[in-house]
Amino acid sequence: MNSIILRAGTRVLVSLLLLFSVYMLLRGHNEPGGGFIGGLTGATGFVLYAIACGTKDAREALRLTPETIAMGGLGIALAAALLPGLAGESFFKGLWLFLGATEGSKGLPLSTVLIFDIGVYLVVFGGTLTLVFALEEAV
Amino acid sequence: MESLLAIVVGILAASAVYLMMARSMMRFLFGLMLLSNAANLSIFVAGRLTEGAAPLIEDGAEAPAGAVANALPQALVLTAIVIGFGLFAFALVLVWRAWTTLGTLEADDMRIAEPKDPA
Amino acid sequence: MNDRAGARGNGPLGLLPAAFALLLFAGFFSLVPTISTGAFVRVSWAWAPSMGIEAAFLVDGLSLTFALLISGIGTLVLLYANTYLAGHVHWGRFALFLVAFMLAMLGLVLADDLILLFIFWELTTLTSYLLIGFSHTTEKGRRSALQALFVTGAGALAFLAGLILLGAAAGTARISEIVGMGDELRAHALYLPVLILLLAGAFTKSAQWPFHFWLPNAMAAPTPVSAFLHSATMVKAGVYLLARMHPALSGTDVWLWTLTVAGAVTAVFASVMSIRQSDLKQALAYTTLMALGTLTLFLGQDSGYAMTAFATFLIVHSLYKAALFLAVGAIDHATGTREVGLLGGLGPAMPVTALATAIAALSMAGFPPFLGFIGKELKYAGALAVASEPVLVAGAVLLANALMLAVAGIVALRPFWGPAGALPRKPREAPWQMLAGPLLLAALGALFGIYPALLQTSLVTPTVISLTGSAEEVKELKLWAGVNLPLLLSIVTYVIGVAMYIWRDALRRGLERAFARVPILDLEYDRFMAGLAGFARWVSATVQTGRLRDYLRVTFVTALAALAAGMLVAGIAPRLDFTGLVWTDAAIAAFIVVGALLAAITRVRVAAIAALGVTGIGSALIFISYGAPDVAITQLLVETLVVVLVAAALLQLPLLDAPGESDHRPADAVLAIGVGGAVTVVMLAVLATPLDRRLSTYFEAASWTEAFGRNIVNVILVDFRALDTFGEIAVVVIATLAARALLVAPRSKAEREIDVQKEAAE
Amino acid sequence: MSTFATNALLAIAWAALSGSFSLITLATGFGLGYAALWVVQPLTGRSRYFGRVFAWIRLIVMFLYELFVSSFSVALDVLTPQHRSRPAIIDMPLDVKTDAGLLLVTNLISLTPGTLSLDVSEDRKTLRVHAMFADDPEGLRRQLKSGMEAWVIDAVEA
Amino acid sequence: MSWILALPIAIPFATAVLAFLLRHRPVGRLISIGGAALLLGATLVLLAEVVEHGVIAAQMGGWSAPFGITLVADRLSAAMALITAIIALTVSVFAVGELGEEAESLGYHALFQVLIAGVTGAFLTGDLFNLYVWFEVMLIASFGLLVMGGSPAQIDGGVKYVALNLISTVMFLTGIGILYGMTGTLNLADLASATDTVDQGLLTVVAMMFMVAFGVKAAVFPLFFWLPASYHTPAFATSAVFAGLLTKVGVYALIRMFTLVFDNDQAFTHTILLWVAALTMVVGVLGAAAQSDMRRILSFHIVSQIGYMVMGLALMTPLALIGAVFYLLHHIVVKANLFLIAGVADRITGGTELSRIGGLYATAPLLALLFLIPAFSLAGFPPLSGFWAKYILVRAALEVEAWVLAAVALAVGLLTIYSMTKIWAGAFWSPHPDGRDPSLAQLAPATRAASVWPIATLAVVTVLIGLFPQPFYAFSEAAASDLLDPTAYITAVLGAPT
Amino acid sequence: MSEIIAGILILSGGIFAVIGGVGIIRMPDVLIRMHAATKIGTLSTGLILAGTAVVLADGHTIAIVVAIIIFLLLTAPIGAHMIGRAAVLTGVPLYEPDHTEAED
Amino acid sequence: MTPELFLSRTLEVGFALVLLTIALALYRLVRGPSLPDRVVALDMMTVALVAFCGLAAIRFRVTAFLDVAAVLALVGFLATVALARFAERRKIRQQEET
Ligand code: NA
Ligand code: NA
After folding, report:
1. Chain E residue closest to A66 (CA)?
2. Which of C639, A10, C371 lies closest to B89 in space, CA to CA?
3. What is residue A99's predicted lDDT score, i.e. its pLDDT?
């Protein structure tokens, strides 16, 4: 796409979309959002990138191939699901760690559930981009 | 609204079915979109409708203050939407590939695997 | 196929199968003293006790007779085959199949369990299929094998049903128990179905008219196979079954008349057919049919004469028929032909073969002092003992015997002592392995003819005991029983038989004319198979049209029919309830509907995409209005991505429907409205009932307190029902990988060819 | 706009979205923004460090003013029976250099009803604008140049 | 407990991830085979556990049923998982011999493993919506495998396969929504009791909806079109795993739902199933009789054989269900094997169209023997596995005096023989029209081993079931009694009723 | 007081929205429709969102509303630019005051 | 009229006006005639939907709906971009072919 305006806008928007997608991912457990929404939003950013600057640039920016990201995400989600099993709990059982918990607040929550959601994010993100990039390159 | 949505689901399904039986596979795809939409709405409405209140728990509360929308069908619909997206994307690419490979989008012309005159 | 001995022999290893068979024979022979006393031997293992199936074997007179015939003739046939097929590339598998067949046959006659019996029954079918198909490179050979399999297989299915019902009626699958339950079974409601089904199995296996046609065709197999399967053993399986079931099922009018009529018709028909043949093997094949008919005929009866006649003729026939088959094989092997018209003057070149053939033929023709004579006398005695229609039965037997005599002449006289014809090869005597069988078997016919008591005590009496349950009914085997009606009938037989032999050509011509109008069942079989294939093609073409739209229509019609049937039969209570309907909701619903209808109607792709976008936005509005922000966001994101994807794919796709697409598809529209209507009605009925919300209630309570999340939907997704989500992301990964495979795969050669064609067309 | 500034902006945006301007959220936002910018590195061109507060404020105020005024004028055209518009496509020379400046100029022109940025020439020297009320193309060109573009250049590039 | 139920799903997923990430290295295919072997071990342990302890259940995430998702294994599902593992292992070995690096780099192994995970997931889940998810996992993986290679025939078949299966999927989904709307639950064991208190007429209507949805998956008449339209187009390894497993998941789902949940109006639903069974058997076998391509014949036979399994469900007597279970287990092995054999035949004779190939009997006797075993087993010849399956079903039909059904089942057996011998005559007995002497020696040693061993293994399984039917029958008997009296199933999931 | 302000914001936003809607129907060519629709639409949405911020009036809401408005101001003109460019490039007939409405 | 009542009334009117706007856009979407026309209509609907979310947030006093609006505001234009680019590329390809 040779629109200079679009390319100029893309620069800002891609960062914003990525940022926003991570925001949606991390808040997902308590507010609307989560891995799906985050992953789709993040993917949207790179879709825009690909539309504005071509898939070659977008792939370079991504460093890893989207397929690898998606599969890696699946692996992370699987690991998050199996981890509690290793700890003697049920699979998919959420294990929680509250960093810096004090009387008033629970601190920063880290959990297998969050890892799982990150896996979801990566899968949706990588999967969507796998598809869009391949389609863009094919047509 | 539940009754009305049941009717809407029916109309969506009818439109979808009509589209799916069209000659062009593109219209089949559109029908597929509508049909997924109908299915999602039917799950949503089957969980009954509660106006407004999203199934969120306020800060500081242990549970939702009042009646909130049924969360389970929402989760199911969300899952179904994403699955439907994956399936639709594949179907779309398949139809595209059918066009480049078979040179047609017409369902009636797709007779390679099952030729008209079996040997 | 190369029937002639090749350059290579089979070596000493080639004798192994025969040795194995001999070992079996010896084993069975050692049981003769025990069995001849009327005792029996039974061994069994639990096999499938839950199904009530035992691996049980019983040796009594009947089964021992069969076992000795099978293993004895088997030994000779294997010996014979070793030379007959010497050096053949497929000798190994041939011998394997033949031995396997022999074992299956032994299992069949020894089995003391209905299902075990069936298993061996089918194993003989399978091995004989492979053996008949030995000449598989010819269309004819393949057809013959299939025909035998198909006909006997069809019978076997009925047979299986019959066995199951018999087992159910008797309450046991143990044959030795069942045979003692004759009175109960004959009175059982299932008697008739059981009988009919078993007879279907027996008649097809034993090639009784009208299921006879496969047997002559099975002669496509090499001679040892014909000799073994189609004279001595397999075809007798049906007869064995009838004999085995005789105590349990005989004695009714149905039994009597079915067996008598089928047997008599088969016997006469086969004899007549036999005389018509110019191929020696074919002629013998029909005489086998005749013998089977006769055996069946006797099993229809109850008299001691009939039973003794059955037992004796069973053995007689096996001996001479195997001998003749093997001899004909030797002739074929030596000269390269079996055509009566070509053969002649072989006697000086093949004296031993000629001798064996002559002895066997004399037995077959029923001349004294051979066993065949005794057999024939008993046949007449048995026929005359038939209570109801002695004249008819005896007449049929007489006609058949006379024809047999004529055939014996054709086989034994003409080729050896007739004028020499134009033979493909210069004849020479067969090697010893091929002579041993015919000679031995023929000699046994003479031996037992002269010393009938040997046979009487060892096998005939025990067999009759198996059939009737006691020794009282046994009639004595005698070469000279005085001047009686059977002897007179024998003399009449000789006269007619010799006359037939002399005027055989005239007879043959006359029969040609007479049979011109009779439908040939072999051709009817072809017509049936063609009809079956045609019907199958019609069904296939009607159902599996190859057109997706037909498939879709049928699928939707089925779905609609299923729902409608459910609604009509079960009855449901849909309820419309518009209370509390907000006008904004109505407006949103209207948007969705307009979008859907527009998408359904428009022929412009982009308009359709936009219309889909509208329904998507409408759905999102509903999700927002009814408290589902997560769903709404996801829906909108997905809609956006769908538009991106479609816009990319559409770059290469046509934007309008191909010309000629009629959008007036009223039938489709009716179907679509039907489906939609059904969905609505079901939904309305569901919505009229109360919802049990305990699951969500639990989630609301546990979401924060136990799962530490305030967004209940998200907690369900990543915790309560994380397994769903896991599967779902797997769908995403795989969907995109699958799509990618389609997108990046290089185009195949075939595709490029299509491109070339397209270009050429333009 | 420099990379740093973009990053800072992203950090603030993060904090805004998180709803708490605590140090932790700002730091997190900065980190995440950094990551995001790192990802889009291939796109990032040179830009300058210091924004001008005054120029920015002027830009925003003038923009909002323009937005309202021209919205009303378009609305008037919508609501009156006759079409008053005299649409034309005019080319306007561009002086703005940076991506951010270019984006601001074109977006602001597009956002104000009555004008729409159609395209920028490959050499970034010319902006093609569709104008609804182009009775006086030259005047319009001058107006845009001395208005929007000048304010943007002041705010971003000066 | 939790481990052993989760592993049959987790192992193929982990294998998929690893095999994909290492797809450009030779170790990728070894991972796939190794994963399948691990799966086999896990499912063996699972089956042993189930045989020892009865129905076992595990609550995912530790959320008690019916709130979380329960994995549950009774005898039927454990056995199905085991057979799945057997097929996975044999086919993944076979695939090494058949598929090239291109397919591997496109992620063949990942797709294959995820397919397997979807299948085991469907067998082991105790939750209706989760079943839908596994169906989708399986379906999308099958889409990818089906069209991988992208030949025109594959694309054509793929379009039909995808179109019809997607409709079924949406129907299933809608059905779930409606059932949830009636009962408020998704847990199968919970549904079993929850459905007792709802409007029974409406429940029957919903049952019909599920019947159609699963009917498409199971490929019953008149919903089977997608199967003969596509199964002859992909790689043989793919055909084999499809033929063995995919429709069986539909049958499994039918059995599960129509014994556990939709058992309210058997006079109506199961009578319809009876008709469906008979027509499926007949139309399928006639379709096969009309074909002249090896794989197309085999494809239609899948349809026909599904009829037998549905027949067992339709009769719904203990013996009939035993037959259905036995048939299900036996058929997976046999049908997959026949497709593998077709694959080898294709490679050494140059095709599967019977008029254009031949000569295998003369020069490839091992293959001939290996074909005869599953072929005659399929036709119900004793003493092979298929005989027992058919015997039990026919007996079950005769037991309840369903004469016509029994006759149909038997006659279809005869027609099955007819088409098996058609293959035999065409590909094995008749000489090759080009005068070729096809032989296994044409294959490279590694390929030959990778092709023959899986086939031989499956053939041995077929023969073993045939020769030693007792343990399999006894097992099926226990499995059928689990199905007829789901108390143990429900207790294992929901705990003992208070 | 805040209710009144919010109400006015909502009302004016709604009115602008409808004017945009009418514009999209009434205006003679696609570019002019865009002037009317997309941008008046943006303004109207901004007004309504401002109303939302006024009503809910917590920091979180305000932050989000600001974010949404920024997002809109960033994306809407880019979208408009793309459409306009496409319309010109694909040769969609444009309105000339002396001619009648053009359609393709 | 209390301020609360005023707000709730204006809210109703606001919903009506926004929905009316969507309806008007729908009309343009149906009519076309050109692809850019339809895209304009879709774009307008998207923006109106953002407004709708804002109104819903007020009506139900749930900020969560603003999250929907935020996503839509950020992502919605992508469909517009994609479609517009499609129109352009399609045209360019046609020109290349002829
Ligand atoms: Na129930
Ligand atoms: Na052939």
Report:
1. E21
2. C639
3. 65
Which chains have at least 3 CB atom pairs separated by less than 8 Å from chain A? Answer: B, C, D, E, F, G
Residue C30's closest CA among C67, C82, C85? C67
In contact, B46 and C686? CB cutoff 8 Å: yes
Count of H-run helices and E-run strands, chain D: 6, 3
Beta bridge partners of E59: E70
With an 8 Å CB cutoff and a minimum of 3 pairs, decide whether chains D and E touch. Answer: no
Give the angle C577-C578-C584 at the CA atoms, nearest 5°: 150
pLDDT tens for each residue of C291-315: 999 899 889 888 888 899 899 999 9
Strand blocks (E) in C361-465: none
Between C611 and F59, where is the model more confident? Answer: C611
Element (H, E) at C309: helix C304-335
Please answer yes or no on whether C636 and G85 come within 8 Å at the CB atom. no
Q: How far is the C-alpha of E344 from the C-alpha of E97, rounded, in Å?
A: 10
In a 13 Å sphere around the CA of C692, the CA atoms on its Cβ side amount to 16
Q: pLDDT band for position C423 (50/70/90)?
A: confident
CB E204 within 8 A of CB E264: yes
> What distance in angstroms lies between residue E313's CA and the mean position of ligand 1's atoms?
16
Average pLDDT over residues B58-75: 90
Q: Would you give the distance in Å from CA B44 to the centre of its chain?
A: 12
Integer Cα distance of F13 and G58 in angstroms: 14
* Contacts (Cβ under 8 Å, ≥6 apart) of E332: E83, E84, E87, E244, E245, E248
Contacts of F99 (CB under 8 A, 6+ apart): none
Round the CA-based radius of gyration of chain F to a whole number and report it.
17
Nearest to C548 among E130, E149, E160 (CB): E160
Provide DSSP, C490-516.
HHHHHHHHHHHHHTHHHHHHHHHHHHT
Burial class (CB in 10 A: 0-12, 13-18, 19+), D135: exposed
Q: How many helices and strands, by DSSP H and E, does chain G display? A: 3, 0
For residues C331 and C338, is the Cβ–Cβ distance under 8 A?
yes
A112-138 vs A35-53: helix crossing angle, rounded to 10: 30
**Average pLDDT, stretch C347-376?**
88
Identify which of E152, E154, E2 has the alpha carbon closest to the alpha carbon of residue E71: E2
> How buried is G98 (Cβ within 10 angstroms: 0-12 exposed, 13-18 middle, 19+ buried)?
exposed
Q: What distance in Å separates the CA atoms of residue E467 and residue E461, rounded to the nearest whole number?
A: 10
Centre of ligand 1 from the C-alpha of residue B70, in Å: 25
Report how many helices (DSSP H) and strands (DSSP E) chain F contains, helices first. 4, 0
pLDDT greater at residue B22 or residue D52: B22
Nearest chain A residue (CA) to C629: A32
Cα D73 versus chain centre, distance = 21
Write down the pTM of the prediction: 0.93
Quote the percentage of chain D above a pLDDT of 90. Answer: 0
Q: Tell me what pLDDT residue G11 has.
A: 92
Calpha distance C249→C245 (Å, rounded):
6
Give Cα separations from E397 to C51, E76, E383, E384 (angstroms): 15, 21, 21, 21
Residue of G nearest to F63 (CA): G66
- Peptide linkage before E383 cis (omega within 30 of 0): yes
Count of positions (residues) in chain C: 762
For residue E239, report the distance from its CA to the centre of ligand 2, in Å. 22
Whether E160 contacts E166, CB under 8 Å: no
For E187, list phi and psi in degrees, rounded to 5: -70, 130
Question: Across the interface, do C724 and E147 touch by the CB < 8 Å criterion?
Answer: no
* C-alpha gyration radius of chain E: 21
